[in-house]
Q: What sequence folds into this?
């Protein structure tokens, strides 16, 4: 194993990322950053040509929000015209632009754009270096966790980000499975879990069954715009109102003041998980024209926070009901509710989840880290030290194919167990036709406009023959990670055919390799 | 031989080889055989004789005569084996003699394959595989070859009409043995590839069988799980109505089981249509609503209602066939005659005495279309 470099488990989160390893004693262990934290904030601050990552980049949120990228995971593998991106573009302080192929990229300055893959790669590389410092040897491979609902494009984008960071992905693991695995579900009896993951930016619910060591995700739902950051925002809104009343300033348009309030409110919120009162303290909220700073102090009670976040807490129920309905389960058919993600530490969230699911959730000591522990255990499983466990994944969305702008035809249906492969045969339509072009779509609708285009390919150098005599077999494979592979064969001769990529979602192979080299040289 | 065909003949014993050149060949050169294709007279073919020791001898030949067999897709083809010279014959005889004298360590280039191996040809082992991985590689190759020849239910080792539990159990057994993750620790791409190919075969078989079970109403599926449908024995009409009226007069006599009694309020012609014998029936209330909607020309909503009903009564043939009728009516309203025809045929396949499906299909076949108002009358 060592010859090929060490492998780590990484929870690449919207707000925070965690790296875990199987240590030399065979136990999973969370690694701490230089600041002594177990989680690395998924924030990248671009200061000119310099890049600051993690805790130190929080200052960027404060001083230059337009070049400080957080939550890049939400943008990964998404088209710019996706409704969720449109919503994000209004919320985020940095600019989003459409890449030439329709993907979402980030504009740091006019003429300077960066892809979310590169931003995630920087975070992954930081985690990789943390692990390298721990082991004292190179880390080259990783298990990376992803939301269970990630489609093929998002999965590929995650893989690309890892490759840019110099990490080979040994497996993309769905987060609810990783959470159940990290919780030790493989050791106990067969159980039906409901995994509720309330992180910084998203709320994901999944029904996970563990049956004889086989993990299966039955249904996933979620709210992509509900998380601890939204609670922070609610607190800030109320604090801004309080500033107006108590100090007579309106700071609602002052980005720096807002960010300072947010940091103070977040600290107070964390404290309030275990106490009933905490202090919000900002040393210099705004600066008067005279140069004098205005200090802001306020005591924050837990019931105030709960009152302000009540509209958000109420949004926890619908995804849970949907997940249960999707899994065709009643509340009483769930054996255990797992709470994952830092925001589930909030007492109000726990109370609400207990009410909605009708049972007291299992208390996990480290809800922020359990997913990364699961990823590290997956490394151990793939290296053969954990036996008798299988993690089954299914296609999150169907895959369709269309030729020459025609209707999309379903090739691989949604919920097909991966790895799987299907094929379609195309015939030439003209005499001596040299190439056949086809499109691969994600989605099951016959109308192309309702699906997402993954790529356009051409089979080239076809032999000369009358129309219909050349038959091309196109094989579409969804591999164990849920990413797409293509192959083409000429049916009569059995020859492998050359596939030319004309359009692709995400980064091109050549770009990934170039960026990986750049990032490695830059360090 | 780019233009010609290669016909493989496999001999498992040397007796068969002897019988081939002594009894099967006429005049030493002519061979008649059944083949699955229609060969042109004069076409070049190559006969690949696979001997018991694994060696394949290629013999060129020309097609002399072909005659189709009545009631069979195959054709008798007479081939003149021009390449079957005395030289070749003596080589075969020599090998037969040495094969008989030393049977156990055959001079085949491959290590002895396991007894279950259908084909004793040696796979080429990649150079990066060594030691005990070599045996694993060979075992996986054999298993993959065997599975590639099987029907989907055989891949999972279940009977053709297996139920949801059996299919799931068969699939779980297969992935527990062959999932690529189980061999990931070898970090050998060739082994992982073989395991992945086997798992792909298993997963595809599982997906096909479970969608068939779901389509037949014998199972429900969520994520990767397939299970027996819960609750089809108790249905909507088992609940009492507020106004005291009962849709099924004999509901009390056999609680929990619906009986094939025509619902009240359906015209005599419909009542005459027999229900499927022996099957569990139910959902007349849904059927009535759907018929009313079809009578109003609202095929889309009728389809929704029937789809909902089928979740509760997945085994009801009348409901299922009516669902396809509704789908056909909706297709006809859009002018999609082809789709409608196939939907009507499906309806009849599910419930052959479905009167509406028969009538509309007959009309469509005769006139190429169906009048919407005529169709509506059928349901009134």
A:
């Amino acid at each position: 194993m060592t010859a090929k470099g060490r492998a780590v488990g990484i929870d690449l989160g919207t707000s925070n990322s965690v790296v875990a390893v199987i240590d030399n004693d065979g136990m999973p262990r969370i690694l701490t950053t230089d600041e002594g934290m177990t989680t690395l904030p998924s924030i990248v601050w671009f200061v000119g040509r310099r890049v600051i990552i993690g805790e130190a980049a929080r200052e960027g949120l404060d001083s230059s929000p337009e070049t400080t990228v957080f939550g890049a995971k939400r943008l990964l593998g998404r088209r710019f015209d996706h409704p969720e991106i449109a919503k994000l573009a209004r919320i985020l302080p940095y600019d989003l632009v459409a890449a030439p192929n329709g993907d979402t990229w980030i504009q740091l300055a006019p003429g300077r754009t960066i892809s979310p893959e590169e931003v995630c790669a920087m975070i992954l590389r930081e985690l990789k270096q943390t692990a390298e410092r721990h082991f004292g040897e190179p880390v080259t491979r990783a298990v990376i966790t992803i939301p269970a609902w990630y489609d093929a494009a998002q999965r590929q984008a995650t893989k690309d980000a890892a490759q840019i960071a110099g990490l080979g992905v040994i497996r993309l693991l769905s987060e609810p499975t990783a959470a159940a695995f990290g919780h030790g579900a493989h050791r106990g009896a067969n159980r039906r879990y409901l995994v509720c993951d309330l992180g910084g930016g998203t709320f994901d619910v999944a029904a996970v069954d563990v049956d004889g060591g086989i993990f299966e995700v039955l249904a996933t739902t979620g709210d992509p715009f509900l998380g601890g950051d939204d609670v922070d925002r609610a607190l800030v809104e109320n604090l801004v109102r309080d500033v107006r009343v108590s100090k007579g300033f309106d700071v609602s348009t002052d980005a720096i003041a807002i960010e300072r309030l947010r940091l103070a409110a977040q600290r107070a919120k964390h404290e309030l998980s275990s106490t009933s009162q905490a202090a919000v303290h900002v040393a210099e909220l705004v600066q008067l024209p005279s140069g004098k700073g205005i200090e802001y102090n306020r005591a924050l009670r837990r019931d105030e926070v709960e009152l302000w976040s009540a509209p958000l807490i109420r949004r926890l129920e619908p995804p849970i009901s949907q997940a249960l309905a999707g899994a065709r389960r009643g509340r009483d058919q769930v054996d255990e509710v797992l709470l994952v993600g830092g925001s589930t530490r909030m007492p109000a969230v726990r109370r609400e989840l207990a009410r909605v699911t009708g049972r007291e959730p299992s208390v996990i000591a480290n809800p922020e880290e359990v997913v990364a522990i699961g990823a590290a255990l997956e490394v151990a499983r793939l290296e053969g030290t954990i036996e008798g466990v299988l993690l089954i994944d299914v296609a999150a969305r169907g895959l369709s194919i269309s030729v020459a702008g025609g209707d999309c035809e379903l090739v691989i249906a949604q919920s097909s167990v991966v790895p799987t492969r299907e094929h379609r045969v195309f015939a030439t339509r003209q005499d001596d036709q040299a190439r056949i072009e086809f499109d691969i779509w994600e989605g099951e609708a016959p109308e192309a406009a309702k699906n997402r285009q993954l790529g356009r390919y051409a089979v080239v150098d076809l032999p000369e023959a009358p129309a219909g005599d050349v038959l091309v077999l196109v094989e579409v494979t969804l591999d164990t990670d849920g990413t797409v592979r293509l192959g083409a064969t000429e049916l009569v001769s059995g020859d492998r055919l050359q596939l030319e990529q004309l359009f692709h979602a995400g980064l091109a192979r050549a770009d990934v390799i170039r960026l990986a080299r750049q990032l490695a040289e830059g360090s | 031989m780019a233009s010609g065909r290669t016909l493989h003949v496999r001999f498992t014993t040397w007796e068969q080889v002897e019988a081939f050149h002594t009894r099967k060949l006429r005049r030493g050169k002519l061979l008649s055989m059944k083949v699955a294709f229609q060969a042109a007279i004069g076409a070049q073919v190559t006969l690949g004789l696979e001997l018991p020791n694994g060696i394949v001898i290629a013999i060129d030949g020309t097609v002399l005569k072909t005659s189709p067999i009545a009631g069979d897709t195959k054709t008798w083809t007479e081939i003149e084996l021009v390449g079957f010279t005395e030289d070749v014959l003596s080589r075969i005889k020599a090998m037969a003699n040495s094969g008989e004298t030393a049977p156990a360590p055959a001079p085949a280039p491959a290590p002895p394959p396991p007894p279950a191996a259908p084909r004793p040809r040696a796979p080429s082992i990649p150079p990066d595989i060594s030691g005990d991985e070599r045996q694993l590689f060979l075992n996986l190759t054999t298993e993959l070859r065997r599975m590639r020849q099987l029907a989907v239910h055989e891949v999972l080792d279940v009977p053709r009409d297996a139920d949801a539990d059996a299919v799931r159990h068969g699939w779980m057994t297969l992935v527990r043995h062959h999932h690529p993750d189980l061999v990931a620790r070898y970090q050998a791409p060739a082994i992982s590839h073989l395991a992945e190919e086997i798992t792909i075969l298993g997963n595809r078989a599982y997906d096909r069988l479970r969608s068939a079970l779901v389509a037949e109403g014998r199972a429900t599926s969520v994520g990767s799980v397939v299970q027996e449908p819960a609750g089809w024995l108790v249905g909507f009409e088992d609940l009492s109505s507020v106004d005291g009226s009962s849709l099924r007069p004999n509901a009390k006599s056999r609680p929990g089981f619906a009986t094939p009694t025509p619902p009240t309020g359906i015209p005599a012609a419909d009542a005459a249509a027999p229900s499927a014998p022996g099957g569990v029936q139910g959902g007349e209330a849904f059927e009535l609503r759907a018929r009313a909607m079809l009578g109003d020309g609202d095929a889309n909503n009728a389809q929704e209602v029937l789809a909902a009903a089928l979740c509760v009564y997945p085994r009801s043939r009348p409901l299922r066939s009516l669902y396809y009728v509704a789908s056909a009516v909706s297709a006809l309203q859009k002018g999609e005659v082809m789709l409608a025809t196939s939907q009507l045929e499906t309806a009849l396949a599910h419930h052959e005495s479905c009167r509406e499906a028969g009538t509309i299909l007959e009309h469509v076949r005769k006139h190429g279309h169906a009048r919407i108002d005529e169709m509506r009358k059928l349901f009134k």
In short: The interface with chain B takes residues 4, 170-171, 207, 209, 211-212, 214, 216-219, 326-328, 381-384, 390-394, 413, 415-422, 477, 479-480, 493 of chain A (CB under 8 Å). Chain A has a mean pLDDT of 90. Residues 145 and 173 of chain A are 5 Å apart (CA to CA).
